[in-house]
Every structure is written in C-alpha cells, then in structure tokens.
Amino acid sequence: MSRENEEPGGEELPEYAERVLEVAELIPPGRVMTYGDIAEWLGEGGPRQVGRVMALYGGAVPWWRVVRADGALLPGHELRALGHYREEGTPLREAPRSAEGHLPRLDLRAARWDGRRADGGAAPPGPE
What we know:
This protein is mainly alpha-helical and about 130 residues long. The chain is built from five helices and four strands; from the N terminus they run H-E-H-H-E-H-E-E-H. The protein has helices at about 15-25, 35-40, 45-55, 80-90, 110; strands at about 35, 65, 90-95, 105. A two-stranded parallel sheet has the order 1-2. The protein has a two-stranded antiparallel ribbon with strand order 3-4. The two termini are about 20 Å apart.
C-alpha cells in the first residue's frame, strides 16, 4: 500500500482509521462514497466516525472521493476538490445562479460507487 500504517508522529493508526483509509483508497477515480456508505460497508461506526477519521488522517488518501451525503463540496476544500473532480471526470451538477459561490455539487446518482470492481468482480472483502 502507498501509505504507512503510522501517523506522521510515528504512532500507529487506530484499526478503525486504517480500515476507513483502506476503503478510501479503493474508490476508483471519478467515483465517490459518502461517509455513511463507508461506515455501512465496514459494518461499523457511522458517518461522523468516518468523517473524523478523514479529517485526522485522510490527507494520505484520495480524500475528495469521500463525500457528504448531500453532494456538497467539502467546506474549506471546495476548489481543491473541484480540481480533482474535473481532472477525474467525476459527475457534477451545476449550481443554480442563486447558490452561494456558484459551486457545483456532486451528482451522487451518477458518481456513487457501490464497492464493486469495474470489471464486474466481487467487492473487496468487508469485515469478517
């Protein structure tokens, strides 16, 4: 794996954090999973726990592929995320002119990944 099993300070990552980050790394370019999707796929925790892991440790993985359930771009990181989405061809919904900042939202119907491989193979193993 491209990331070490340690925090920047040299301490080992909590097991749950490691599992969340492993799922984030599996999400293909141009696709997304919500915080809740990841918690459900792992069969543990919830959206807030996944969000906390991503906030603390997510910089080493494609964090822009783990998103809010409403499709809104991550506050404070909108432009960086938008650059990644456009580069990867992630489906977006253009914002109405009345929307603050005119930032698009993710088109979750088209962009959401269900954990299955593109070749139709089985999803990576979840919790046992």
